[in-house]
């Protein structure tokens, strides 16, 4: 246990509600967040089979507006932001000049010249500073909206029906990675069809003073369908099964998007220069000709659980490192994502194991994701 | 879940039953089980092993972490709970009953084991 002093954790607008629900709380990126309410496995399974309700108010919202907002974002981020249609969203990244990943982001186009950038809680200040710095010379405004929003997610196959019962918004017309303004349970909200669970679902951006009312309305509307409150613990196992990267684990400043197997988010064909372009061109070539380690999935043959930082081994040699690991409720076995030397990264490679506290446990190399929902 | 009065407790959050014919049953408390979250893997000491009070003798793995299992007493292991090996969630659902972990023929026990009331005060639960 560290005894170093840390600043007091921040609390979301739903803090009192979480405590009244008996949540086990945890510090996450400086926020006091629900880890789980009861059994994290039950919460995980609820999202896979019914629906779960999450408080994600720690996420960092940044609004970019102005005549050249799209040009700024095209310069500051690696994606082709100018091609996002109104009401649509895109997964993208912000990189350093050397190509290292500063954060992965979702950018929502809210209006003709208005964008909402959602950053990870732990990187929100970094992203805000980078966007503000990169905005020099652009007729665009970067605004810190972290305190302007609470974020509530309802995820799982029952989530469309649950949300429909408390909104008149056209959810059938709302595609995956799209967002529209609407009223939910009498509360104005940005309704986005996005998530981090591998299931269909929605993320609702609302004013913090409306968060509790929305949470209660969704709780009541979802109860008949089996919706339960869900904490960050199951969010982690859900995203891991879905093969989705987590910043600080699969993504770091030491890696480019190409190293992480996500080179597709880098759009060299877009107009104009962007931060990191040259370094990323080189990284793309490197990934093509002499790939360094590759991000793979590992499935345990035994029951001991690999954790971030554990070594991947083959024939007694270290050939990689685990970035995320957990018992998978859906597969019923421990799973991990790991960066592994290309020679051992092909699915089905024999003789790969993980060093779990001195014992080499056998693991199967598989392609990601571990889980894909049936549409 | 309150801590049963007839048990004694260690500061490592294990419980110890009354000794019968020289043998005591050992498990972890409801507080410990709840702190761990869903237990998914239990590595228990094997029958015939000698365990030492205050030293690790196995591990319990949960969704988020792995924790060492400590023996509250010194002695020879006479049984390990195969039900828990097969279904580790028993540790969460019945920590003081079906979720017991192992039995020890007690050779020595420390003097600082806690009563139920003392443990409740110690753990705050």
Percent of residues in helices of chain B comes to: 10-25%
- Which H/E pattern describes the elements of chain A? EHEEHEEHEEEHEEHEEEHEHHEEEEEE
Biggest sheet architecture of chain A = 6 strands, mixed
Note the main sheet of chain B.
6 strands, antiparallel
Low-pLDDT regions of chain B: none
**Helicity range of the residues of chain A?**
10-25%
The name of the CATH superfamily of chain B reads: RNA polymerase II/Efflux pump adaptor protein, barrel-sandwich hybrid domain
- When the domains of chain B are counted, the total is 1
**Assembly classification:** heterodimer
Rounded to the nearest angstrom, the radius of gyration of chain B is 13 Å
Which CATH architecture of chain B?
Beta Barrel
Biggest protein-protein contact in the assembly: A-B, 16 and 13 residues
Summarize the model shown.
Chain A: Residues 16-270 form the GCVT N-terminal domain. Among the domains of chain A are: 10-57 and 149-241, 2-Layer Sandwich (Gyrase A, domain 2), CATH 3.30.1360; 293-375, Aminomethyltransferase beta-barrel domains (Elongation Factor Tu (Ef-tu), domain 3, Beta Barrel).
């Amino acid at each position: 246990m560290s005894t170093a002093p840390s600043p007091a954790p921040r609390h979301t607008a739903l803090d009192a509600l979480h405590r009244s629900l008996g949540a086990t709380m945890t510090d996450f990126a400086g926020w006091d967040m629900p880890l789980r309410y009861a059994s994290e496995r039950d919460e995980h399974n609820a999202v896979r089979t019914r629906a779960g309700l999450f408080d994600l108010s720690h996420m960092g919202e940044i609004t970019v507006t102005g005549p050249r907002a799209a040009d700024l974002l095209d310069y500051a981020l690696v994606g082709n932001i100018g091609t996002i249609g109104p009401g649509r969203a895109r997964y993208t990244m912000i990189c350093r000049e050397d190509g290292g990943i500063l954060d992965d982001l979702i950018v929502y186009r809210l209006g003709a010249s208005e964008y909402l950038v959602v950053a990870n809680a732990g990187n929100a200040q970094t992203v805000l500073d980078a966007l503000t710095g990169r905005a020099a010379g652009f007729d665009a405004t970067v605004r810190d909206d972290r305190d302007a929003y609470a974020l509530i997610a309802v995820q799982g196959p029952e989530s469309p029906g649950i949300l429909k019962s408390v909104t008149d918004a056209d959810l059938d017309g709302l595609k995956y990675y799209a967002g529209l303004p609407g009223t939910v349970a009498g509360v104005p909200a940005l309704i986005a069809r996005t998530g981090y669970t591998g299931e269909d679902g929605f993320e609702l951006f609302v004013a913090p003073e409306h968060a509790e009312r929305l949470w209660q309305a969704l709780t009541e509307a979802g109860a008949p369908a089996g919706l339960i409150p869900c904490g960050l613990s199951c969010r982690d196992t859900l995203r891991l099964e879905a093969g989705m990267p987590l910043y600080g684990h699969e993504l770091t400043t030491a890696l480019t998007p190409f190293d992480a197997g996500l080179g597709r988010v880098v759009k060299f064909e877009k107009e104009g220069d962007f931060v990191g372009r040259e370094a990323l061109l080189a990284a793309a070539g490197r990934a093509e000709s002499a790939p360094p380690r590759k991000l793979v999935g590992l499935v345990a043959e035994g029951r001991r659980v690999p954790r971030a930082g554990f070594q991947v081994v083959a024939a007694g040699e270290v050939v990689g490192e685990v970035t995320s690991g957990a018992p998978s409720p859906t597969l019923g076995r421990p799973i991990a994502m790991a960066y592994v030397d290309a020679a051992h990264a092909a699915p089905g490679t024999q003789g790969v194991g993980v060093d779990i506290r001195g014992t080499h446990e056998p693991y199967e190399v598989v392609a990601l994701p571990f889980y894909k929902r049936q549409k | 879940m309150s801590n049963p009065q007839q048990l004694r407790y260690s500061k490592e959050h294990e419980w110890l039953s009354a000794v019968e014919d020289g043998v005591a049953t050992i498990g972890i408390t409801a507080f410990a089980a709840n702190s761990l979250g869903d237990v998914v893997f239990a590595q228990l000491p094997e029958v015939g092993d000698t365990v030492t009070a205050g030293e690790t003798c196995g591990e319990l793995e949960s969704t988020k972490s792995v924790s060492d299992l400590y023996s509250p007493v010194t002695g020879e292991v006479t049984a390990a709970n195969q039900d828990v090996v097969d279904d580790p969630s028993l540790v969460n659902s019945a920590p003081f009953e079906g979720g017991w972990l192992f039995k020890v023929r007690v050779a020595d026990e420390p003097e600082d084991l806690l009563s139920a009331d003392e443990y409740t005060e110690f753990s705050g639960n």
